[in-house]
Amino acid sequence: MKRIIILSLFFISVNSIAQNLTQKEFVVLIFDIERNDSLHPRDIFYWVAESNKGTKDNEFDFKPLFLKLFYSSNSYDDCCIGKESLFYSFTEHSKFEFTDKFGKKQKELRQFLKNHSKVIQVIKKRNKWNKLLNEKVTISATAITAELCNCKIKEDRHFESVFLPTSDFKLNLKFWESENAIYITNRDYSGLRVDY
Questions:
Q1: Considering just the CA atoms, what is the radius of gyration of the chain in Å?
Q2: Strand runs (DSSP E) across 54-134, as ranges?
Q3: CB-hemisphere CA count at 13 Å for 40?
Q4: Which is it for strands 170-171 and 148-152: parallel, antiparallel or unpaired?
Q5: Alpha helices, H only, 20-98
Q6: Fewer CB within 10 Å of terminal CB in the chain, N or C?
Q7: Distance of CA 69 to the CA centre of its chain
Q8: Do β-strands 118-125 and 135-146 pair in parallel, antiparallel, or remain unpaired?
């Protein structure tokens, strides 16, 4: 147990050196998908972008923010030292050494985002053939300051890289007064593929 904690601290410190991590400003989009299907009633996906780096077309480069531990601990470690990582495949070298404390921290970060989010759009998707496929998608946003590590993924997905948390989140309320805020709140999110 001590070895895991020491390794975690080591990787966070190496991670900070390897990726030159500093507190940056981000905006997190939360896609909360509710269904009538009792087997899969709800999915929540988190996407993140630096909030002061919109493109010339006022678009933000959103990437998945993984806040659930469905991947191996060595994928986390590799990602946080800047190595391309596997998140959806496991090998004989895959380790699952996340501590309970680390898992609890992920839950706290999810709760923090939920508690401080602003609803920006609600989409209702109706399926005329099967009511179980009806969906209500609530899109919320939270502006934060945090240290996040970023890496490319090795698997073939509809995104090329992901973000992982390495610090607590702090609210960045001044974002909502910035000129970039309107490009978050006035965007139509109905065409985005948000699953990962």
A1: 18
A2: 63-64, 118-125
A3: 9
A4: unpaired
A5: 73-79
A6: N
A7: 12
A8: antiparallel
Number of separate domains in the chain: 1
Per the document, the length of the chain is 196
* Chain segment 132-184, per-residue pLDDT in tens: 778 999 999 999 999 999 999 999 999 999 999 999 999 999 999 998 999 99
194 located within any domain: no
Q: How far is 90 from 3, CA to CA, in rounded Å?
A: 22
Contact yes or no for 144/160 (Cβ under 8 A): no
Q: What residues have CB less than 8 Å from 173, skipping those under 6 apart?
A: 143
Who's near 65: CB < 8 A, 6+ residues apart? 28, 46, 47, 48, 148, 162, 163, 164, 165
Owning domain of residue 70: 2-185
* Domain annotation covers residue 67: yes
- Gap between the Cα atoms of 9 and 6, Å rounded: 5
81 inside domain: yes
The structure tokens listed for 97 are 């050494």
Residue 173 within a domain: yes
DSSP reduced 3-state for 47: strand
Q: Which of 196, 7, 162 is nearest to 83 (CA)?
A: 162
Residue with tokens 């899109």: 139
- For residues 188 and 13, the model is more confident at 188
